[in-house]
Amino acid sequence: MASADERNSRTIHTAACLIIGDEVLGGKTTDTNSAYMAKWCFSLGINLKRVEVVEDDEDEIIEAVRRMSDRYDLVVTSGGIGPTHDDITYQSIAKAFGLKLILHDAAYERMKKLTKPSKSQPNFSWDVESPAKTARLRMVRLPIDETRDLAKQALFPRDDLWVPISVVNGNIHILPGVPRLFENLLEGLKPFIVDRLVDPEGKGICRIIISTPMSESAIADYLTELAAKVAPKGVKVGSYPRWGKRNNSVTLVGRDKEYLESLVPDVLKNVQGKRVNVEGEDDEPEATTSAAT
Q1: Burial classification of residue 228, based on how many CB atoms lie within 10 Å of its CB (0-12 exposed, 13-18 middle, 19 or more buried)
Q2: pLDDT tens across 43-73, in order?
Q3: Looking at residue 202, what is its pLDDT?
Q4: CB 68 within 8 A of CB 18
Q5: Alpha-carbon distance 48 to 278, whole Å?
């Protein structure tokens, strides 16, 4: 089994995203973070292999992070790191890898410096022990491996945010569930991993979209043959029906842009299609009918 330092240094081919929260599974909150991460991975050339949602349950979190850390090069979790009783992500992940929760001094100092006064707690003081202070400290007690370099276990991508990215077992990156914070921290993570990407320039994966008036069944045989032909080159062929629209979509996805471009003329011919930049851009306006008088 790879060590945490090995996981923290190897080339990043694959990724997984773990969304943690009863509120997502219960329908109260709509998850947008996994979709944001999917686009982020695509732009960097990382193959996002799995997205899971689990409840705020210690056993569920432990099982998921152990499995994901072992199978994927980069793991990002979202949610469960707030100050309340049901925010159990830190403690669960610490338990998963036999670690202690330790007050991270740098994170604590940043918290004190950057946290704005709360109108609901006008008398709060960092110098006075209180339930509110105890609750806030939950957010800077991080899973720490005392045998490893501390700098590799807590990253601070944004100067204007005190929230760290806690890195556990070398490849699990713990982020908050609030979309704005999640997005800002994920974007800030790029400089820390860019030299470990398959393409260190971070050019990402290419996608070509072709709009076709033909039905999926009419082009199924051709696309099956095409997919088999281009698979050895690392290209994936996709077919997507667009219900209620005149045209469907065919996509070519891969890293070798020149090779993808070479395929386009043949695909256009066989699906009687048109290349588009954005799916649906060639949709005709829906006809409007006036009521009979």
Answers
A1: exposed
A2: 999 999 999 999 999 999 999 999 999 999 9
A3: 61
A4: yes
A5: 22
